[in-house]
Amino acid sequence: xxxxxxxxxxxxxxxxxxxxxxxxxxxxxxxxxxxxxxxxxxxxxxxxxxxxxxxxxxxxxxxxxxxxxxxxxxxxxxxxxxxxxxxxxxxxxxxxxxxxxxxxxxxxxxxxxxxxxxxxxxxxxxxxxxxxxxxxxxxxxxxxxxxxxxxxxxxxxxxxxxxxxxxxxxxxxxxxxxxxxxxxxxxxxxxxxxxxxxxxxxxxxxxxxxxxxxxxxxxxxxxxxxxxxxxxxxxxxxxxxxxxxxxxxxxxxxxxxxxxxxxxxxxxxxxxxxxxxxxxxxxxxxxxxxxxxxx
Length: 295
Description:
Layout: H1 20-27, H2 33-44, H3 46-49, H4 54-60, H5 65-74, H6 80-95, H7 108-129, H8 132-142, E1 147-151, H9 157-168, E2 174-175, H10 180-188, E3 194-200, H11 206-218, E4 221-226, H12 232-236, E5 239-242, H13 255-275, H14 279-292
Parallel strand pairs: 1-2, 1-3, 3-4, 4-5
Helix pairs in contact: 2-5, 4-5, 7-13, 9-13, 10-11
């Protein structure tokens, strides 16, 4: 039942809009430990790699030439030279990006400018990189859903708390509880026609994985919004949507990726309004209730 929207060997050049560095970041969780060291070296110093031989990159990443070549093959590249050619097309835009790292001596106004620029860049890139086929599959699964529960912990929990309320305003029976144990018990009560939707940056959180495995066993449709193409979560769900962002050293717990996830959830909400019968009437009724609570 697992749907693989993105193969780990899909050539990077298959999408002219997909930046190589973002492709590497998205696939990094599915790499071997040695390949991940190569990945970190490339992501941290893309401009340096342009000047390195394959042997030098292997040495800097404490791996072997064979590991570097396997890393290139994982990306669907024809070899190390192909990696460098693709980096040459993208590295300059990354190093010149206004969304630079925050420096320890930056003033408050500079910090604000850099953080806002980084967030804007992340959201802008997401529009180019998200698999719209996967997005459509998730919307298709939610349109006829009898019941939708959300699974998330940590910094993903606020997003999972927000989206059920918005789905409720258009007539969808959607819920989220912050207690992982209650999430797990609730998932056991699902069945065919129901949906369990996980939101997880890493796709590796044990509590969320337990919920999704249980939901899958009940026959419910399982969905996921995450930041990495390959993870334990993407291996067990029916449909996955990958959207995330490179994190900076001052943005703890992947907050930039959370902004991207929030925007994607908003897009799902809007798409459902357009697709579901009765959504506009439900919105109008919800608006009437909200008006009663405002001065």
